[in-house]
Amino acid sequence: MPGSDGKPVIEIRGLQKVFAHGDTEVAALENIDIDIHQGEFVCLMGPSGSGKSTLLHLIAGLDNPTGGQCRVLGQELSDMSERDLSRWRNEHIGFIFQSFNLIPVLTAYENVEMPLLLTGLSRKERGEHIEAALGIVGLSDRLTHYPRQLSGGQEQRVAIARALVADPDLVLADEPTGDLDAKSAEEVLTILRKLNQDYGKTIIMVTHDPKASGYATVTRHLDKGQMLPL
Amino acid sequence: MSLFRFIIRNVFRNKRRAILTMLSIAFSLFLLLFLLTVLNGLLNPVTQDEAALRLIVRRSTSLAEFMPIAYGDKIRELPEVELVTPLQWCNFFYRDTNNFFANFAADPEHLFEIYSEQKVSPEALARFKAERTAAISGKDLMDKFGWKVGDKITLLGSIFPVDLEFTIVGEYTSAEFQNSFYLRYDYLNEAMNKLNQVGCFAIKVKSKEAVPRVAEAVDALFRNSPYETKTETEKAFVLGFVSMLGNVKNIIASVALVVMFTMLLVSVSTMSMAVRERLREVAILRAIGYPRGVVVRLILGEAFFIAGLGTVLGIAMAESLRFVDLNSVSNGFLDKFRPEVATYALTIAAGVGIGLISGLVPAVQAARMNIVSAMRSIE
Ligand SMILES: Nc1ncnc2c1ncn2[C@@H]1O[C@H](COP(=O)(O)OP(=O)(O)OP(=O)(O)O)[C@@H](O)[C@H]1O
Ligand SMILES: [Mg+2]
Fold this sequence. Notes:
The complex is a heterodimer. Chain A is α/β, with parallel strands linked by helices. Chain A has one domain (39-64, 80-227): P-loop containing nucleotide triphosphate hydrolases (Rossmann fold), CATH 3.40.50. Chain A contains six helices and ten strands; from the N terminus they run βββαββαβαααβαβββ. A six-stranded mixed sheet of chain A has the order 6-7-8-3-9-10, sandwiched between helices. Chain A has a four-stranded antiparallel sheet with strand order 2-1-4-5, with helices on one face. In chain A, strand 1 (8-21) and strand 2 (24-37) form a beta hairpin. Chain A is globular. By secondary structure, chain B is α+β, with helices and mostly antiparallel strands. Chain B has two domains: 3-45 and 247-378, no CATH class; 61-227, no CATH class. In chain B, 52% of the residues lie in helices and 17% in strands. Chain A binds chain B through residues 53-54, 57, 60, 62-63, 82-83, 86-91, 93-95, 97-101, 103-106, 110, 113-115, 117-118, 162-163, 166, and chain B through 1-3, 6, 9-10, 12-13, 280-281, 284-294, 370-372, 375-376, 378-379. Adenosine-5'-triphosphate sits between chains A (19, 21, 26, 28, 46, 48-54) and B (372-373, 376).
């Protein structure tokens, strides 16, 4: 079983993100230092507005920091072009949002297929990946269902399948259980733990739910843009 | 699935909107194709080889003014003139003024030699030359009014304030236009108490090379007379006639432009709306690794697909006009619907342009959008 003692997959030093709001500035993140290692399941907690989503977006290269370094999977993200970042995300990052994750006009199968359309995989190879991913989240019997025909928990599991179908190194989840009832939330958390324990995926999950931290290997707290010490 | 299938799914996300957009593109391109074809027909009237040998003489001041009928004899004496006939636009109506058709008074001896593309049987021609009240009608006109050879009909006067009775002695056929009606000038002239005036002469010149010389000679002949003339080729004459119709050309061209511009605005705003509604989805695509270029192509593809179907439909609608008898629907104003290749090309280019611009506007918006704020805006 992968432990938390490997080489860091994420090295963050002095990371800063300031949003300019007209003439006032909001510091969403201030001087963040954190290492995250291969195989860790990090639970990121903190009050609303503390900068959790912002940190996740910077790690995924969806936004640019205003200061500091953010090295992910050995790449300094600020050195990469938009194009390379897109490709890199497609290959290495799986992203799960709180809600409205899926494209309504596509079936579960097709939603999961979306990241693979950018790869050179054949139809058949894609099919194998998709079925495996939907199998892991326990939705092998819902391939042709459209999002509106799925429950919130099932939608979220399809989103997890889409996040892992390209076999990413890093799974980022922003309040994946925020909109779910307790039972569905538990299913989703169980799947994430399985991904971490059985498939060795490094996971960073933002959550407000104290129970969720029980599934993680590490819990970190953000407050007013600062990372609290362990 | 493929990215193409994804584009199709996006197109039909909102079926009604997609279909309405396609239909409005189709209708406006149909209108464009139709107007351009009409415009083309007006600017390039069909002219026969025979027409190249023909000149039309009229008063230099206005088409509505007359000159002495005796001018015909003087013109005939010019060296390179083969045949001459008076050609008087009569503006007679049949039964009521809605039944508009072209009717001319001419010289029965030479009319059908000068207009040799209009074929008449020898018997009909013989009667036309022999009987003063004889008239010859185009085949389509015969069919339209249900006339038969031998019928006696009365036409109602307008510019010439007399109602005249005619005997239809035959019909003429032609590859182009079978909607004219010919009566004898001498019959009209007698009914008008020997007015001895005419608006136009048609001349057949002996050779193509002589055409400009004859035109110049005719006008020189009557220069400084009270009735100066203007002699021009049939094509130039018809064009002059068209411009008299109140600059139809500019009106048609501006209508076509306005239609295209309106269509462009409509499709740009429809596509922009369609994309704005799913900016969050675009953000999700970007988050799972879709580069800007692919997002742009997805949106452009969607716009092209809609514009493309609209274009095909619009051209199909226009093509169906081939089965409509435009000539009789438009009282002979329009001829058969035969758009030129360039007109098709222009219509297709307009369709592609609509697709490109209506896709490019929202595609650029989507590509420029900040992924993080797009996700935040709905969360
Ligand atoms: N695009 C932006 N423009 C301006 N300010 C922003 C923007 N994004 C985030 N912020 C600000 O940065 C701070 C951190 O926001 P962030 O979304 O990271 O918080 P969070 O911890 O995820 O909160 P929540 O638990 O409510 O999701 C907030 O004060 C927010 O208002
Ligand atoms: Mg957040």
